[in-house]
Amino acid sequence: MAKNNSNNVMDKLVSLAKRRGFIxxxxxxxxxxxxxxxxxxxxxxxxxxxxxLWWKSMVYERDDIEGLDASILMHPKVWEASGHVEGFTxxxxxxxxxxxxxxxxxxxxxxxxxxxxxKNTFTEARQFNLMFKTFMGPVEDSANIVYLRPETAQGIYxxxxxxxxxxxxxxxxxxxxxxxAFRNEITPGNFIFRMREFEQMEMQFFVRPGxxxxxxxxxxETRRQWYKRLxxxxxxxxxxxxxxxxxxxxxxxxxxxxxxxxxGWNEVEGIHNRTDFDLKRHMEYSGKDLRYFDDQSKERFIxxxxxTSVGCDRLLLTCLADxxxxxxxxxxxxxxxxxxxxxxxxxxxxxxxxxxxIAKKIINDLRGDFRVFYDESGSVGRRYRRMDEAxxxxxxxxxxxxxxxxxxxxxxxxxxxxxxxxxxxxxxxxQEKIKG
Length: 436
Hints:
Helix content is 31%, strand content 28%.
């Protein structure tokens, strides 16, 4: 896809996201704040649906994973042990003329500044720590420094024994968590693809050393299959294996699940074999024994960890980009019903003959089980188009035949086909269609 066409698609997607209430610029009335976004009425529903589908697949559908919600603020030694204080950095350069800042590994320093066009104006690269630093308590000094967590994984590691003992777990087992993380990115961008405040969905699976490669392959395939539930175009998904020069210092092996965005192939999820690095480091820094005792073999050892880590915001953008479709007479978001923010809309064909009352009764019967929308404004065709842009998979219309036989017209978003359905079948119909 040509770059200008790619930018055009992203511009249209950003415009739709604001117009329909998916995503707004944070603090927009004050001019906004760079790379921070607010989720509107449709966006917050869609994000909730994505998180629920992930949680369902990780925790509810399995018998070997427990949930956790660790604190955002943690003891500063956690980040020393993890290596973030010392090594969580990016190389940064400044343009001496326009003062713009860039990641040195993402631009060609031999070329002119991409902002002002001047040549040979870059400073020497220096390391920039990505963690947000703050202070706990009334005194701002070095003894009270804490950090906003740059990832959720460390909260899982420091709670390894707590969860294992409370849930009476034996290896192999996992701990899943959804939560906020913060990174002071030098060059965030591409809408919500890279933000300074974002949400992660991470699962750490603890295994016996020697069984890590088997479980690594298992989770690669399991996570690849999960994307089918999101309805994503499989031709736009691929694995990228990290080469030796790309591997994190703690990783034995790493694969990214990448998606072909309008701006190119980029990571959506990472699957990593983190070995015993994390538990070993926290054992060293805390002085606590984090070894696992196997009561069958009578061995004590530090488990290896297989990690799956996906950015919820980035995945939401993936789903929007994949669903965005321009057809001859409409723009439609072909979202999987499981993650669509509004599951169904109900319309009276006209505002008379008792049709609005019947439509509102259907809406009241569905509320509490589904996010539904009532609309009696404008022609039915225009109402359909509004719902198409919102990604609503099903529209039910009350018409003159409804008054005769208690059936309604159900219209399918993607095909625009219609059929009749009995009113008392609407709820089971939706329950079946939106299963994730």
